[in-house]
Amino acid sequence: MSVVAVIGGQWGDEGKGRVVDLLAQQAQMVIRYSGGNNAGHTVINDRGTFKLHLVPAGIFNPETINIIGTGVVVDPAALLEEMTMLAEADVTFDNLYISDRAHVIMPYHREQDRIQEALRGDGRLGTTGRGVGPAYSDKMERIGIRVGDLLHSETLLQCFARALDVKHSLLQSYGGTIEPLPALHQQFIDYGQQLRSHIRPTHPLVQQALRRGDRILLEGAQASLLDVDWGTYPYVTSSAPGAAGACQGAGIGPREVSHVLGVFKAYTTRVGGGPFPTELTDETGDLLRERGHEYGTTTGRPRRCGWFDAVAARYVCELNSCDYIVWTKLDILDELPTLRICTGYQINGAKIDYMPSSVAELSQVQPIYEELPGWQTSTDNARTFDDLPPNAKRYLERLEELLGVPTALISVGPSREASIERVPIAALFA
Q1: Mean pLDDT, to the nearest integer, of 2-15?
Q2: Residues 415 and 322 sit within 8 Å (Cβ to Cβ)
Q3: Exactly one of 41, 53, 103, 259 is catalytic; which is it?
Q4: In CA terms, which of 160, 180, 338, 354 is 20 to 30 Å from 284?
């Protein structure tokens, strides 16, 4: 088997784009399995710097098949805009396919997202307003529109008739509006024509690749602590961004997955609302934000920064059967004289070593910290584990102990070359 799933181990923004770009160089197929254009991967390679929101990271290799999977919700306008941006860097798309079963984000989804978030007032979730949540909601309500429907005018009309009966009433009650049906229908028929050569049933493609033993990379968005079931509900995304969701969204059985890589920053960040036990609101938090350029790829919002939370990270590793860890942004910690790791929580005088399911309870926990000395020297040029300062190695080894999972890769900078392979990438696909 040679299927590798890459999942975010925290609240997103762990640098998965950097990781999937590195692995995609050796993958023969890359499948984006969940989420929408509410998240982004920043990829830096010899062509430049790219912010990808829907197109899989394997697109830079014309020999790699790239699939936008069934579990993704697709905004056609955003996808076409992204493809135009990539085409300006001479990227071609003969190797890009979109599952005909993937659902479509409509303008009324964005309108609904915007209005509902505003109505939440102080209880705002921090959505991006891209319409992702309402699109997934319609999918579950069985009034969604799928990408394949855009290729059939009469079918699309029937889909709109079914959906708009509900949406008109809903948005009118909020004071919102919906475009007239004829204009909406024509707009999305046009999108379908522009994307026609890329839309197809992807299940046969994936199964053929599995039978050939191809190297397949499953590329996710968001992260496990934002999982709609296992994350910090309701401050979560609308999909299943973990390893189980990777199988579901890609159309691959769980026994086909050979390795699950959990991607973690060497510290912790979060965007939007919700509990964050190790958050730093002091100068150290500001330092991490500025050194790490911790601003959202999609929205530009400043990220909340804090110490590494090993309790939450261990929970993620257990949920996803992570057999390797990828550490990113180790270099951001280079200047700190002392580092802290959260090894447990305390609530109402009692110590716990698990992550509470209740947001109210998680908001009250006090982190229990273990301190380690920093290294206060640059790690930028490290290319082997032994190149790292002794205290940096000690820090990573302690994190491994706490999580019970070995390290595969360590990132010490944004470029492809700024990596340390403790496990060769080729071995991950073996």
Answers
A1: 94
A2: no
A3: 41
A4: 354
**Which pair of tokens denotes residue 232?**
């910090």
Asked if residue 428 lies in contact with residue 347, where contact means CB atoms within 8 angstroms, the answer is no
- Per residue in 391-424, pLDDT (tens digit) is 999 999 999 999 999 999 999 998 878 999 999 9
| Fold match flag (1-99+201-430 vs 103-195) | no
Residues contacting 349, CB < 8 A, separation 6+: none
Distance (Å, whole) CA 239 – CA 135: 11
Neighbouring-strand partners of residue 269:
305
Contacts of 182 (CB under 8 A, 6+ apart): none
Query: What is the rounded distance in angstroms from the CA atom of residue 59 to the CA atom of residue 345?
Result: 43
Structure tokens at 307: 């110490």
Instruction: Tell me the whole-structure pTM to 2 decimals.
Output: 0.92
Q: What is the CA radius of gyration of the chain?
A: 22
C-beta separation of 34 from 7 below 8 A: no
Every domain of the chain and the residues it spans: 1-99+201-430, 103-195
227 is catalytic: no
Written as six digits, the tokens of 269 are 């960040």
- Residues 105 and 107: their CA atoms lie apart, in Å, by 7
Please pick, among 13, 21, 149, 227, the residue that the annotation labels catalytic. Answer: 13
Rounded to whole angstroms, the Cα distance separating 139 from 162 reads: 12
Write out the two tokens for 382: 């490290």
What is the DSSP-derived secondary structure letter of residue 147? G
With respect to CATH, is domain 1-99+201-430 assigned 3.90.170.10?
A: yes
In three-state form (DSSP H/G/I as H, E/B as E, the rest C), the secondary structure along 384-420 is: CHHHCCHHHHHHHHHHHHHHCCCEEEEECCCCCCCEE
For domain 103-195, give the CATH superfamily.
Answer: Adenylosuccinate Synthetase, subunit A, domain 2 (1.10.300.10)
| Residue where the block lists tokens 């921090």 | 126
Chain centre distance of CA 197: 26
How many residues make up the chain in this entry? 430
